[in-house]
């Protein structure tokens, strides 16, 4: 009996300038598998200075976060994830466009995206992901650790859930209009 592998892919919205979905190759044998999840030779626009392993319970939403100074790398290792992006870079050809990705642990892929994008991820099942940023968490300042409430309709991402578990901080994020006024100009 053949098992259908769900593919990690863009499922809605626009391909945003500077975002890369990198398919990863899992090499399997009788011992298990080996997968290269990052290589400097891939010529990604990412100067990774911190790597983190993140575990999320079912029905957890992380985001919508925004950073002016650092780029990010996201690789779902186990589980399932909906990942939403919105381009807030006023000089970008995809300014204010949004995209939504669906990632699956059984079809390994990494999503690499530049600074200036609102980003958030939802885990409908317990999941594990690797994440890298180009600025260490201890160096994040309040001037670069912004957010927008995840369900603001002006973001545009058609999330498939309506009552996720969010952090206290994310529960207090402003709407998109208030956020745009706070960061202007960007």
What does this structure look like?
With 186 residues, the chain is mostly beta strands. The chain has one domain (9-27, 41-183): Sandwich (Jelly Rolls), CATH 2.60.120.10. Helix content is 6%, strand content 40%. The protein is built from two helices and 13 strands; from the N terminus they run E-E-E-E-E-E-E-E-E-E-E-E-E-H-H. A hairpin with a 2-residue loop joins strand 3 (26-29) and strand 4 (32-35). The longest helix has 8 residues, at 176-183. The mean pLDDT is 93.
Q: Would you count the extended β strands for me?
A: 13
The average pLDDT is 93
Tally of individual domains: 1
The gyration radius over C-alpha positions equals 16 Å
Largest beta sheet: what is the strand line-up?
Answer: 1-9-8-11-6-13
Count of alpha and pi helical runs: 2
The secondary-structure element order is EEEEEEEEEEEEEHH
- Name of the CATH architecture: Sandwich
CATH topology: Jelly Rolls
Shape: globular
How far apart the termini lie comes to 53 Å
Range of helix content: under 10%
CATH superfamily: Jelly Rolls
Percent range for β-strand residues? 35-45%
> Largest beta sheet, briefly?
6 strands, antiparallel
CATH class: Mainly Beta
Pairing-aware structural class of the strands and helices? Answer: mainly beta
Q: Low-confidence parts lasting 5 or more residues at pLDDT below 50? A: none
């Amino acid at each position: 009996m053949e098992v259908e592998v769900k593919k990690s892919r863009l499922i809605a919205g626009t391909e945003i300038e500077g975002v890369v979905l990198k398919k990863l190759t899992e090499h399997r044998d009788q011992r298990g598998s080996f997968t290269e999840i990052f290589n400097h030779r891939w010529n990604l626009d990412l100067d990774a200075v911190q790597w983190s392993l993140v575990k999320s319970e079912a029905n957890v939403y992380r985001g919508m976060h925004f950073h002016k100074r650092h780029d990010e790398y996201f690789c779902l290792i186990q589980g399932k994830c909906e990942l939403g992006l919105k381009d807030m870079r006023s000089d970008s050809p995809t300014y204010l466009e949004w995209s939504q990705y669906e990632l699956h642990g059984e079809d390994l892929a990494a999503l690499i995206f530049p600074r200036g994008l609102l980003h958030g991820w939802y885990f409908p099942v317990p999941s594990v992901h690797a994440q890298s940023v180009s600025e260490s968490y201890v160096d994040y300042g309040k001037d670069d650790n912004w957010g927008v409430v995840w369900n603001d309709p002006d973001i545009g991402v058609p999330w498939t859930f309506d009552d996720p578990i969010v952090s206290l901080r994310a529960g207090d994020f402003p709407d998109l209009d208030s956020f745009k006024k706070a960061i202007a100009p960007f």
